Amino acid sequence: MLRERYAHQIGGLKDDLLRMGSMVEQALIHALKALETWDTTIAAQVISDDRQIDQVWRSLEERIITLLATQQPIVASDLRLCMVVTAIAGELERIGDYANAIAKRVRSATRRPALLLPPPQIQEMARLTIQMVNTSLQAFLLQDAKLAHSLTTSDERVDELEDLLRTEIIAAAKADLTRLEAAIDMLDIIRALERAADRATNISERVIYLVTNSVETIN
Questions:
Q1: Domain that holds residue 186
Q2: Number of domains into which the chain is organized
Q3: Per-residue CA distances from 14 to 1, 9, 99 (Å)
Q4: Helix (H) or strand (E) holding 102
């Protein structure tokens, strides 16, 4: 009976991590929709929803601590799973923070005297970043190390786009100094996307560790 309860708790950790991942993915999608349409209502909702993501994160950490303290002995594979869930939850919380930061920048940008329209390449960067978060979570769900490794190519492209966009935005700001503050907003949004993509690769590295019991760096 105790082991059945233990197995149920382990399964619950996985389910709640994936639920948190879905919340974070939606936060990113909505933040980028707010950017695309300059919709401050959507941006405000993303900012508000960030508290729920933080609550799920804290709940997961507390349950894992309780599980480790009360279930002894714990088998090595389950210990590794608990460590990985803790680490991935932390990465997801940070991605949620980046979505929150994008939403806040959208809100502040709409108050500027002059807007700087997002360069078209930002759509590709946003699509890749969201795809990377989704793929990293799929890799966890399926415990698929090969799928986790597949993020490398996307991460390299995101880095290329960040460099390209940064150069273009700085040039636009120099050409029209009235758009300088708006350009700073946009640079922060680009940086948040790049960091979210990096966090997705971190999640994939944790998946690889979970599956293979070996530490690898893929970004």
A1: 2-212
A2: 1
A3: 20, 9, 23
A4: helix 76-109
| Position 77 in a domain | yes
Domain with residue 14: its CATH number is 1.20.58.220
Question: Strand, coil or helix: what is 116?
Answer: coil
The alpha carbon of residue 209 and the mean position of all alpha carbons in its chain are separated, in whole angstroms, by: 19
The two tokens of residue 80 are 């590794």
User: Is 2 a residue whose pLDDT tops 60?
Assistant: no
Q: Rg for the chain (alpha carbons), in Å?
A: 19
- Rounded Cα distance between 116 and 105, Å, is 12
pLDDT tens digit string along 50-88? 999 999 999 999 989 888 888 766 777 788 899 999 999
| Rounded Cα distance, 177 and 24, in Å | 35
- Confirm whether 217 is domain-assigned: no
